[in-house]
UniProtKB/TrEMBL annotation:
Annotated EC: 3.5.1.41
Protein name (database record): chitin deacetylase
Catalytic activity field: [(1->4)-N-acetyl-beta-D-glucosaminyl](n) + n H2O = chitosan + n acetate
Enzyme class: hydrolase
Biological processes, Gene Ontology terms: cell wall organization; chitin catabolic process; fungal-type cell wall biogenesis; polysaccharide catabolic process
Superkingdom classification of source: Eukaryota
Key word Signal present: yes
Comp. bias (Low complexity): 373-401
An annotated GO cellular component: plasma membrane
Signal peptide limits: 1-26
Cofactor dependence: Co(2+)
Keyword Glycoprotein: yes
Amino acid sequence: MRVTASSPSPAIAVVSLLGLAASVLAHPQATRTSEAEEAAISNPTTECQSYDYPPVTQAMSSFPKIWEYAATILPGDAAGHAKYASFNTSIPKIAPKGILTDSTKGTNYPATDPDCWWTYSNCLTPKLSGLVPDVADVPEPRTLGYGFDDGPYCGHNVWYDYLSSQNQKATMFYIGSNVMDYPLEAQRAITDGHEICAHTWSHNYMTATSNEGAFAELWYSIQAIKLVTGVTPTCWRPPYGDVDDRIRYIAGQLGLQTTVWKYDTEDGTEGSDGVTAADVTKNYDDFITKASQGAFNTVGAILLTHELTNFTMQTAMDYHPKLMQVFDHIVPIAVAQNKTTPYLETNYTMPTFAEYIAGTTQTNGTTAVSSAPAQSNSGSPTSSGSDPATSSGSPSPGSSGEQNQHVNGAGHVKGSVSGPLSAVGAAVLALLWL
Ligand SMILES: *[C@@H]1O[C@H](CO)[C@@H](O)[C@H](O)[C@H]1NC(C)=O
Ligand SMILES: *[C@@H]1O[C@H](CO)[C@@H](O)[C@H](O)[C@H]1NC(C)=O
Ligand SMILES: *[C@@H]1O[C@H](CO)[C@@H](O)[C@H](O)[C@H]1NC(C)=O
Ligand SMILES: *[C@@H]1O[C@H](CO)[C@@H](O)[C@H](O)[C@H]1NC(C)=O
Ligand SMILES: *[C@@H]1O[C@H](CO)[C@@H](O)[C@H](O)[C@H]1NC(C)=O
Ligand SMILES: [Zn+2]
């Protein structure tokens, strides 16, 4: 081999290769520093390797522990305390229900449904005056308000690539803890022109939380989305649909519209609670049959689906063409509402419904957070990656039961891995995790 003057000598090349190998072995996290770099990863296993994103790492102390119930406002969070103090004395005096993993547990609730508890009765119109009814469908006829819960999923590029290839935008209900774990994935939603709504910090049953806990779950989820994407949502979806007038009031004080659904694919429950893949495809098929029979000819629909596992995303991909056949339009929920400034930051715009269906599916959706430079190898993964508790509670009365299993990022190697299992072992473990 002819070594030109500008090439490194073979010896230097070998040494630097060794150095690279050593640094990779000592630090198994993938390196990626920008949304574009993340979006270019096509292999979900690679995409799910953890990485360090300095803006999140540096802000961790201003947030609750990832995947832990945000029970309180952090002591140093002056803005959080001030916001909460501005309305906490007027929160409706409704007692928390059940336990965090099942608000129906041990709850002896009056049949008159005094709290407009969705989990009990699918109630959408608050009993208390001054509260806005929940959104459960979209006003435009023959239109599907297309939404996905529980993201960002660490390995979502195949799914988001598909959406891009179809010029299809959707509403993503992101969990704060996932946004902190997978910030570059979250940024892709904005870059691609999707709408982001909040789906709490740790995905517990919200009617079981304390007043301050309910506030903190919502507050830190929208702070996480703001930190990572530059925008502050004005919509949220309660995990499991679990909302009552107390929670509606607190969400309303944070400027959050409550969005639920009327149709459920049960895709997030597939593989547990007796729900099979065949049940999920039957739910999709039944929904499509209803649409083809004219059920949404005067008011459009919202269907519960998830960005949670390969199964939920692949099934969404498989069914997108079939949904296109029975709906005239499939649009983000904000678009179906002509909500052109869906965030507190009013310089970010989404198209009107008319613009969207005429082909302008995206207005200005650039990532507002500039990409941080790569951190040298000293960074720790952005979180401990602990698994959230998932509910195994009995199905709630009247509930569509959004019983999700949160699959944790494969790259989030547990801190307890040590000794011979460190470095290489952990990297192998991480690969096997999927
Ligand atoms: C309201 O919140 C403030 C600030 O967190 C706190 O000092 C006060 O005790 C709260 N009041 C009630 C009634 O919860
Ligand atoms: C789901 O997994 C299969 C098999 O690995 C893969 O071919 C497919 O692209 C994945 N789908 C999505 C949406 O990630
Ligand atoms: C959205 O705006 C269009 C006009 O551009 C109007 O026809 C439609 O009724 C509006 N929809 C809603 C839900 O406001
Ligand atoms: C965003 O788009 C709107 C409407 O197209 C435009 O008026 C506005 O100037 C754009 N803002 C930025 C910052 O690009
Ligand atoms: C909106 O304004 C904020 C604050 O001025 C700025 O940081 C951000 O980049 C802007 N976003 C867009 C999409 O123009
Ligand atoms: Zn969920």
